[in-house]
Amino acid sequence: MNRAAVMPIAAVNDFVVKFANVNGSGSASANELFAKAILRMGVPVSPRNIFPSNIQGLPTWYEVRVSEAGWLGRRGGIDLMVAMNPQTWDADVAELSPGGYLFHDSTRPLPPGRLRDDIVPLGMPLTAICNAHYADPRQRQLFKNILYVGALAQLLGIDADVLDALVAEQYRSKATLLDANREALRMGRDWAAANLPPALGLQLRRADAVGERIFVDGNTAAALGCVYGGATVCAWYPITPSSSLAEAFEKYCLKFRVDPETKQNRFAILQAEDEIASIGMVVGAGWNGARAFTTTSGPGISLMSEFIGLAYFAEIPVTIIDVQRGGPSTGMPTRTQQSDLLAAAYASHGDTKHIVLLPQDPNECFEFAAAALDLADRLQTVVFVLSDLDIGMNQRLCAPFAWDPARRHDRGKLLSHADLEAGREFARYKDVDGDGIPYRTLPGTHPERGAYFTRGTSRDPKARYSERGPDYVYNMQRLLQKFDTARDLVPAPILRLSAPPVGAPSGATPSDAEAPAGAMPPPPSNASANTRLGAIHYGSTTPAMDEAVAILESSGLPLDTLRIRAFPFPDSVRDFVLAHERVFVIEQNRDAQLRSLLINEFDLDPARLERVLHYDGTPITARFIVGAIRERTAS
């Protein structure tokens, strides 16, 4: 193909840029500066950091989706590749869409055949410029990244004052670094202006599409949710991708949980020797009345299972935030999956069922982390918040966090000293109200009454050791009743019918325009009149799913969707399935875990639920979902 005949991609505020770097090269802060500058111009971005789990020097990538329409999922396809890693050059070049742009270091001439005829090369001698300007080897490496940000700003139309303001914020207390970064940005701009095309087909224009949304990662959001939710104890063991959640919790506790007069900490954060010890500490803290949580990932859940079973059977409030990664075993520590759903729902041996909350973004990470602490106390059980690496470690635009100052923490059925003093009957494992939830006391509540022996073995309603069949059956059935009670307490699913709501705001995604469907009407109200196709999804698949639905409907393929936000499922989930001839279940794991859970809990016909599975470690894309559904509906 003749390169002169290539039709370069042309788009305004709607494209994907990918940076290919070397881990440890200092590129992360430069790439984040690029993304934030676009955001400051009022154009939504959705960045994703793709990094190795091994040592410094391995390949790393940073992908930025630019979408004035507000789509935040991965789209698929790359329009501009910033290729800074020779080791991954061939794969990076191959990933570019036809007509895309390849920005690269042209200090050394490329051997023949290293470029494609259907892309637009943009060479800049970054190494030569840095070698001529900086004497220090580390500065040469670091400022090479800032140089290419300056050049891209010139090519794409990023306002210079926006970048200047961001650099000033980052280095406001370090005048030397501030001046050096400003100079590097200017050098990059000037060289690009003098030597590269005056503008690319990809361009940025100021917009007003961000609104009041905030830019934050899910781990930080969940940590703040734990603070607002009243957590005072966190015991954890470092594991990717959850470690930053515990670190953020400590940061916020130091800000909000230190007594202003005595300077004493009103919190305890313990880095345990392993995951087994960490969950043991959390169980002990929960038994003592503290609001306690641990944060981990799949391998940690495996190690914690015996303690999880103890907390379930002894009915001790415990919150576990699982930031999922690829498995099994060590798997892919720095890649994302929805691989722990069944493990969380049924963790531990014997007949166990756990509450599982499924946030879609940082806003729900904040909301669900606080809600989990309430649910754990109210239901006296283990509650999982199931995030994943894509939500937890990547910054995402989301609605601002909201908190009602009048909200009080729900401690559940706690008998006080006054209750016991007044002669209130206490039987630790007796169902008094018909909801399966017994009353409990905390250690030290009363010197003579309300004490009981906490055990992991079978007992009668008064907590006395018993292996009598009727006592065991009573207890197990009561635990099921408690689980059933939870159906009306957990976050309700979100129903979206294929006909969009009248008056939905421009640019709103389908999930933005819908309300919770906890009391979804019976069939056929949970299916739109013009479709018999449905789709069920959850968590981090949501941004790509929303965009996929819009694409499918614009091409004449209407689709009702249901976003599940918690387990146990309400009956409305079963009704949604039964109201449609075919229901696609979209998830990011190999074995269709959500589909299995739906079939198991509702005894559904497996033929009604069709798998759409993506599990290569990268976030699912709208293009993948669209392609999978079109392929199945075409046959």
TrEMBL record:
Protein name: Ferredoxin oxidoreductase
InterPro entries: Pyruvate:ferred/Flavod_OxRd (IPR050722), Pyrv/ketoisovalerate_OxRed_cat (IPR019752), Pyrv_Fd/Flavodoxin_OxRdtase_N (IPR002880), Pyrv_flavodox_OxRed_cen (IPR002869), THDP-binding (IPR029061), Transketo_C/PFOR_II (IPR009014)
Coiled coil: none
SUPFAM superfamilies in UniProt: Pyruvate-ferredoxin oxidoreductase, PFOR, domain III (SSF53323), Thiamin diphosphate-binding fold (THDP-binding) (SSF52518), TK C-terminal domain-like (SSF52922)
Pyruvate flavodoxin/ferredoxin oxidoreductase pyrimidine binding domain boundaries: 226-389
Residue ranges annotated for the Pyruvate/ketoisovalerate oxidoreductase catalytic domain, each copy included: 24-189
PANTHER family referenced in this protein's UniProt entry, alphabetically: BLR6743 PROTEIN, PYRUVATE-FLAVODOXIN OXIDOREDUCTASE-RELATED
Start and end residues of each stretch annotated as Disordered: 438-466, 499-525
GO molecular function, one term: oxidoreductase activity, acting on the aldehyde or oxo group of donors
Keywords: Oxidoreductase
Biased composition (Basic and acidic residues): 457-466
Taxonomy, superkingdom: Bacteria
Pfam families assigned: POR, POR_N
A GO BP entry: response to oxidative stress
Transmembrane segments: none
Source organism (scientific name): Arenimonas composti TR7-09 = DSM 18010
